[in-house]
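Researcher: Batch entry, complex prediction.
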Amino acid sequence: MKMNTNGNVYTFCYAAVMVIIVAFLLAFVASALKETQEANVANDTKGQILSALGYDKDAIDVAAVFAEKVQDNVFTREGFKAYEGNFNTTYGSLIKSGELHVFTGMTAGGEEAYVIPVVGRGLWGGLWGYIAINKAKDKVLGTYFYHESETAGLGARISEKWFQDQFIGKPIFGEDGTVALTVVKAGAAQSENEVDGVTGATLTSNGVAAMVKDGLTAYKKFFQACDEEEEPLPCEETEVCEETDVEQ
Amino acid sequence: MSKLFSDENKAAFTNPLNVNNPVTVQVLGICSALAVTSQLKPAIVMGLSVTVITAFSNVIISLLRKTIPNRIRIIVQLVVVAALVTIVSQLLKAYVYDVSVQLSVYVGLIITNCILMGRLEAFAMQNSPWPSFLDGIGNGLGYAAILVIVGFFRELFGFGTLFGYQVIPQFMYDAGYTNNGMMVMPAMSLIIVGLVIWAHRAYNKES
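Model: Structure tokens for the complex:
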């Protein structure tokens, strides 16, 4: 028997059944795999933070090294507070709401470092990264950048090591005390605050520059706070810094 | 066995590699040729992904072809492709996370690739699953071949590298050679595709 596949009723039923089947299938796959995926994402985020600290994330047991070398802190008015809660994998909305995460840890070279998460926008989609800075909070020790959907072979090259390694050793602040670290046109880096952008990906490079500037500026409170060397927090000068800030 | 590899089936596989190439003859999938060919590696990854997805969506549509209502066939094809790509990318994300990170950029490009829709509409709707599968593989590889050719020239002349390794020696740069910035621009990929089409048609005069 040959079905009439052109009738209205058949078409409607076919569309309805197809949509329901596909919806169930997708919902089932998504919920069945959710946990594994989230674990992967968390692990990958830890790998990215370690990568900013100079570790080769493909060669180490990320979860173990992270647990051993890195602490997740929230920077509050009183200073560092160990972060208790589920490990976060995105930081954009946290930074906006004033929850400043600062990771403290050791670089692969054994130097004490802070890692600051930064979030920005590229040409097609979001960018994010982690910037490791030294204990004196004035120099970059390492970076990690990644993107949602930049063009492969052009903007996507910000995730390559040669681009990220350019930041190592660069001073963060200019003479006027604002964030001066920036990305310029490929091959045009002159001053010590500048790094070369990616050829053919000017907009993505500008996005990285803006992300670094805005991201680090958002952590102003953290940079102004004085070092807690021996003294346990709260350190008195912290408030002095903040008072001058208010007066401005 | 002989039936599986009859002349017709062989033709379904080999035609798109040469005389009926999806990019140079059918002129499909040009947009992604522009997006992913500035280096060789993404070009190969994209070519293989499209091959796999075209083959399997061809098979699925071919199995369903007698039931699909004619008036909504394009929608059905689109749903099948989108669902297939989404499920595959979810599986990759759960079990081979590294690969999924590599591919994440391409997922959207695969769904919207005109080769997929073109082959579903032109071949899978009229043929049984096995030839459809071969047709999908053939078209995917035909597409991959062009992407690799374009990617090869763009990476070699644009960056002086292949697969990220420096191949143009330093003394050439010292002697005044510079990488061609034009090659990195998307427009250049269309010019190279144009040159490939020219060479291909000059070679295949009869078509």
